[in-house]
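[step 3/7] inverse_fold.run input=structure_tokens len=1235
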């Protein structure tokens, strides 16, 4: 690390550093004449130099020096050279290219001199300002010719090299690449910096700051801030940031986006507001400083300053405001592969496999080859577009056909592709056997790409040269298992070559492990050559071994190579690919070059074909190839379906009565015919909607409000309504086109719904959406895991009347508080509704409502009440009384809560521990499980069906009462029975068609308690993990036998004579529910979508119950004679418990992370955790197993500050972070509010 880099890093740790303000604004304030710009030296210059501000470093050095000194006096730490346009490309407009070197040297010396004169002790740095030039490498300046470029990458590198080399000569400390509007330009500058570092043997630190072109938050060349960061991250910059473009208010979301991603310092130096009609900036220093100060208060920035319109006065105010603030803590960098096109792609643990589209490869598509040869780039781009539309997360581009000029065709195609945002949004895999073609391609791509591939074929020296170039361009690297002796075709050679390459790349070249992708060679199977039969097994074994050795790297391969022997038979090829991928992905292969439009679903393959392909891939039988060849002709064809409908007496009613009947009964069979008949009678489609359809829905609303219809029936009604509207939509559009001035439909109001960030649960939200739609509200559903900023922006964009937030897990409560605060910051006073299983009226009153001052916050207990609450909020007559009663209610519950807390005398944690449960741990109470470690268990829906607890299912639909009593309820029994019958029918179909693939993973380990914690050990006694516990702190009169329980009480303490164990489990029904639920929603069938999700949730719980029975009777075996009686199980009349983090016995959701790590749940069953520790897929359950006979369920209840402090110390977390984790159970008000 150079001295400058070390000093800068140290300064960042102590202060928020301040960068100087606008140079141009200060120059303009001096009202310099043409003569001033020309000076004596350029008096005869043929072109007017007025406005060439950079030239003033030569013609008016005193003016420039004075500006630098004023910014130093204002308190800036980073002083920038007057060289924003000092490349020969930019200076060409003035015909002053010949003075570029002198310009930069002189400008650097002026700042160096001013800085060296400063006598105070604050850190000061000279930054060589490098602007974006006036050309773009990613876009054509000619609208009619998108493939044209005024300059190419090599010319840009040369221009930047000339400028930056001169700045270094002049004495700058670091380089500032600022106002980056085209990331490819910045990458050219980075390459130039790398070349200068190598030539001069120096470390030249760089700061990078981009700019956005509009409120979309994208650069002029189309990248998001996240993609921009991913594309320049390889340069190891001191900081990343945003400048120019907007004032501070408008810039904030983009600063926040970078702040959440960057593991380095973040800078922000906005303009002084937006320019007025005369192009001037009116924002005062105080106003600008207040905005920038809020960045600091919110912990978004490490470096601040000003851009256009800011002056030394602005910088002085900014410096004063941020002086007392601590610098931002950089985000933690996950060791994930990051790629980028126009958008950022991160290969997170929850993405099991990345599809790289193969059809834009002249070897992968004969059509693509033909189009390229014909110069028909438009249709060739359509192939790329179709790959992205089919789900490719990146596309592989190869032009290596013998009769093509590969370099020229690659350059042309990539430049044209860059002009197609729907294609360019994904990363590009540059594929060529010629490295000169790869290098030309990298000079066309602004994003972070993948090079496919390099190898040791030509020796180590050439391998290193190519790897350094890939590193300098920021590309990830696919390394082929190929060395000086040829391609690796055995398991051992695959491992040896990849290991050698890894060592070179990481130790000599400095390539991050996550940017290394091994291709251990997928060869053709079933070729008839016996030696080839093991290729599939060897690839899978190599994948597993390489992932164990180098877990941060990735494995890829060209999947279509596998089935090359079956060209022309797509059915067999797709089946082979599917069978192979299932095994390869299980082994750790996460990237593949495939045709995403031709990926067959493994479980839906013909069973015979699947077995034949499995035998070939796994080489299980010597005659596997012959058997597959013999059967290939039998696998083709399609099935047809038909719908049979019935008639009834109600069909003789009038069309409006028939429509009402269909809506009330949820019958879809005849709705299209009936609305068409209504349209022919009423004249227009709009009349049908506003007439009989709305009358029918009003009838539904009346029955629902009167308690004569219930939520599941209302959802069915909505399905009928959607189908009717879908039928009428083409007629409505035609009517509007014919009569554009006609009356438009209006709704009762617009409602925005969202499940907050980190939470994947949406059943309740979806039901609310359907109910509100039936009540004539326009519903905008943002889905699940919605960022706070997206909620606020959508509320503004759609001018909504109501915002509704949903959440199921306790961390969602913190996000809801954050949303409430941000709504205030955005100036949004729209009523905010709070709902979801984890929410409560008390929490809303205590935490969410006080966080907001701009509008009402209302807790809605269930979906049936949403419409009534919204009606009051939007009624000018009812609103005042409603708000008065709401506030009175909040005041009452808050006061009662505080009074109750004051009356409680909770023991401190030391006292509570004196009353822990002292259980006996003997050979009679402690038993070893049948195995240690983990085991994955495949499950069947049919097996789980008897274990379903139906009571929560009916509760989801708003039908109260336990099962089976709910079926006999005098009011809702009929609706409940219909719902139950529909659920049984869907379960029948689900089982027959194998919609879901439930699977679980269980594990057992040695364990011993240490106070309130549990140490998890391997068989040798080595420490694997710590499970942290919380202890009850309840008044002794309310504690059973005066005991204050903690989960650690149920595990033998360290030093016991017996060896105890603990178990863990995770189970999921898989993500199959999402695709099918979406298909139902796309078809307008919300009822079936919600039904499927509700059943999936119940099946996940059933799976957890069934697994626990297996554990008790078999895998742990401490109750081997316990009968399998699902009804008895629901009464919990058995030994052992399975508590889950986030529930009463351990309310801390973050403990799931330890369980998932012990179980390796992500790899074992493809189950992941979100940022808020929600499980994805959502229909999943996880927890711990305790076997002691006296282990019992309990609730921790509320905890006092001393236990929270103790818990923070044990988890090695800050008090603030711990209070946030435990916010719902704190028995006190934390010192600060969390969001």
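[step 3/7] decode complete -> sequence:
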């Amino acid at each position: 690390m150079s001295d400058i880099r070390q000093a800068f890093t140290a300064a960042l740790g102590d202060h928020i550093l301040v960068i100087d303000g606008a140079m141009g604004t200060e120059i303009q304030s001096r009202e310099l004449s043409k003569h001033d710009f020309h000076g004596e030296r350029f008096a005869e210059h043929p072109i007017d130099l007025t406005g060439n501000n950079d030239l003033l470093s030569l013609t008016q050095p005193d003016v420039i020096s004075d500006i630098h000194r004023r910014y130093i006096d204002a308190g800036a730490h980073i002083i920038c050279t007057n060289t924003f346009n000092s490349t020969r490309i930019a200076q060409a407009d003035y015909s002053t290219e010949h003075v570029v070197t002198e310009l930069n040297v002189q400008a650097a010396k002026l700042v160096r001199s001013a800085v060296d004169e400063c006598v105070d002790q604050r850190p000061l740095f000279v930054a060589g300002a490098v602007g974006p030039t006036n050309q773009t490498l990613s876009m054509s300046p000619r609208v009619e010719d998108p493939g044209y470029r005024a300059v190419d990458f090599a010319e840009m590198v040369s221009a930047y090299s000339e400028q930056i080399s001169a700045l270094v000569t002049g004495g700058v400390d670091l380089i500032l690449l600022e106002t980056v509007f085209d990331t490819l330009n910045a990458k050219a500058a980075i390459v130039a910096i790398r070349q200068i570092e190598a030539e001069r043997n120096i470390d030249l630190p760089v700061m990078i700051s981009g700019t956005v072109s509009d409120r979309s938050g994208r650069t002029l060349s189309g990248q998001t801030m996240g993609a921009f960061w991913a594309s320049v991250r390889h340069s190891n910059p001191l900081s990343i940031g945003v400048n120019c473009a907007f004032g501070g208010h408008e810039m904030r979301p983009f600063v926040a986006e970078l702040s959440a991603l960057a593991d380095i310092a973040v800078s922000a130096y906005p303009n002084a507001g937006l320019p007025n009609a005369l192009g001037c900036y009116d924002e005062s220093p105080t106003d600008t400083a207040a905005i920038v100060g809020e960045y600091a208060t919110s912990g978004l920035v490490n470096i601040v300053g000003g851009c256009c319109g800011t002056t030394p006065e602005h910088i002085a105010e900014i410096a004063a405001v941020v002086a007392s603030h601590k610098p931002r803590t950089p985000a933690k960098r996950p060791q994930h592969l990051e790629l980028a096109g126009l958008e950022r792609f991160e290969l997170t643990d929850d993405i099991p496999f990345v599809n790289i589209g193969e059809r834009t490869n002249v070897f992968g598509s004969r059509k693509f080859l033909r189009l390229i040869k014909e110069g028909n780039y438009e249709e060739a781009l359509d192939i790329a577009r179709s790959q992205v539309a089919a789900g490719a997360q990146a596309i592989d581009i190869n032009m290596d056909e013998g009769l093509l000029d590969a370099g020229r065709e690659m350059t042309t195609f990539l430049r044209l592709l860059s002009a197609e945002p729907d294609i360019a949004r994904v990363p590009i895999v540059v594929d060529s056997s010629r490295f000169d073609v790869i290098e030309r391609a990298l000079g066309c791509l602004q994003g972070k790409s993948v090079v496919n591939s390099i190898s040791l074929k030509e020796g180590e020296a050439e391998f290193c040269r190519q790897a350094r170039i890939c590193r300098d361009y920021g590309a990830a690297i696919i390394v082929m298992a190929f060395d000086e002796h040829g391609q690796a075709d055995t398991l051992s050679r695959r491992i040896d070559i990849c290991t050698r390459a890894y060592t070179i790349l990481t130790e000599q070249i400095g390539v991050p492990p996550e940017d290394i992708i091994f291709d251990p060679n997928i060869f053709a199977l079933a070729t008839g050559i016996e030696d080839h039969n093991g290729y599939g097994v060897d690839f899978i074994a190599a994948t597993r071994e390489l992932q164990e050795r180098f877990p941060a790297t990735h494995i890829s391969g060209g999947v279509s190579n596998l089935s090359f022997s079956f060209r022309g038979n797509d059915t067999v090829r797709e089946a082979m690919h599917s069978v192979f991928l299932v095994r390869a992905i299980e082994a750790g292969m996460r990237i593949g070059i495939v045709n995403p439009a031709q990926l067959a679903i493994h479980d839906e393959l013909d069973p015979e074909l699947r077995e034949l392909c499995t035998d070939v891939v796994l080489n299980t039988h010597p005659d596997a190839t012959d058997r597959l060849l013999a059967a290939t002709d039998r696998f083709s064809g399609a099935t047809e379906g038909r719908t049979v409908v019935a008639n009834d007496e109600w069909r003789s009613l009038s069309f409006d009565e028939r429509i009402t009947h269909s809506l009330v009964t949820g019958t879809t069979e005849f709705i299209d015919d009936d609305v068409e008949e209504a349209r022919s009678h009423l004249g227009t489609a709009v009349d049908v909607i506003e007439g009989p359809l709305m009358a029918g829905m009003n009838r539904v609303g009346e029955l629902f409000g009167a308690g004569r219809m219930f939520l599941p029936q209302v959802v069915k009604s909505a399905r009928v309504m959607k189908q009717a509207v879908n039928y009428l939509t083409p007629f409505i559009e035609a009517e509007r086109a014919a009569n554009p001035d006609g009356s438009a439909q209006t709704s009762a109001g617009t409602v925005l719904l969202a499940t907050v960030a980190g939470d994947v649960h949406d059943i309740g939200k979806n039901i609310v959406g359907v109910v509100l739609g039936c009540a004539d509200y326009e519903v905008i559903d943002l889905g699940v895991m919605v960022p706070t900023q997206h909620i606020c922006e959508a509320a503004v964009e759609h001018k909504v009347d109501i915002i509704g937030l949903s959440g199921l897990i306790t961390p969602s409560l913190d996000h809801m508080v954050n949303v409430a605060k941000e709504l205030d910051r955005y100036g949004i006073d729209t009523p905010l509704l709070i709902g979801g299983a984890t929410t409560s009226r008390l929490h809303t009153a205590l935490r969410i409502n006080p966080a907001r001052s701009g509008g009402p916050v209302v807790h809605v207990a269930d979906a049936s009440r949403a419409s009534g609450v919204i009606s009051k909020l939007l009624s000018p007559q009812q609103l005042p009384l409603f708000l008065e009663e709401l506030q009175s209610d909040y005041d009452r519950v808050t006061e009662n809560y505080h009074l109750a807390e004051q009356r409680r005398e909770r023991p401190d944690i030391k006292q509570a521990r004196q009353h822990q449960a002292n259980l006996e741990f003997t050979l009679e109470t402690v038993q070893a499980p049948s195995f240690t470690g983990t085991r994955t268990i495949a499950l069947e829906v049919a097996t789980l069906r008897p274990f379903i607890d139906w009571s929560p299912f009916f509760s989801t639909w708003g039908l109260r009462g336990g099962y089976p009593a709910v079926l006999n309820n005098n009011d809702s029994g009929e609706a409940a029975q219909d719902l139950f019958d529909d659920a049984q029918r869907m379960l029948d179909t689900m089982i027959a068609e194998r919609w879901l693939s439930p699977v679980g993973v269980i594990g057992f380990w040695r364990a011993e308690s240490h106070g309130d914690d549990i140490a998890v050990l391997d068989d040798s006694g080595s420490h694997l993990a710590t499970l942290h516990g919380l202890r009850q702190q309840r008044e002794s009169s309310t504690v059973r036998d005066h005991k204050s329980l903690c989960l650690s009480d149920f595990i033998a303490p360290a030093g016991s004579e017996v060896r105890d164990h603990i178990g863990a489990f995770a189970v999921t029904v898989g993500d199959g529910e999402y695709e099918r639920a979406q298909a139902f929603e796309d078809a307008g069938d919300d009822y079936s979508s919600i039904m499927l999700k509700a059943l999936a949730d119940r099946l996940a719980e059933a799976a957890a119950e069934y697994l626990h029975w297996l554990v008790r009777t078999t895998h742990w075996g401490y109750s081997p004679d316990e009968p399998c009686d699902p009804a008895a199980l629901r009464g919990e009349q058995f030994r052992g418990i399975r508590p889950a983090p986030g529930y009463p016995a351990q309310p801390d959701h973050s403990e799931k992370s330890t369980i998932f790590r012990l179980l390796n749940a992500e790899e074992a069953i493809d189950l992941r955790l979100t940022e808020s520790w929600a499980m994805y897929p959502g229909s999943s359950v996880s927890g711990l197993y305790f076997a002691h006979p006296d282990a019992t369920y309990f609730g921790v209840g509320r905890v006092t500050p001393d236990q929270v402090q103790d818990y923070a110390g044990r988890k090695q977390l800050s008090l603030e972070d711990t209070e946030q984790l435990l916010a719902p159970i704190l028995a006190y008000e934390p010192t600060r509010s969390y969001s």
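[step 4/7] annotate
The chain has five domains: 3-322, 338-632, 649-738, 750-901, 933-1031+1047-1192.
Confidence is low (pLDDT under 50) at residues 637-647, 1037-1041.
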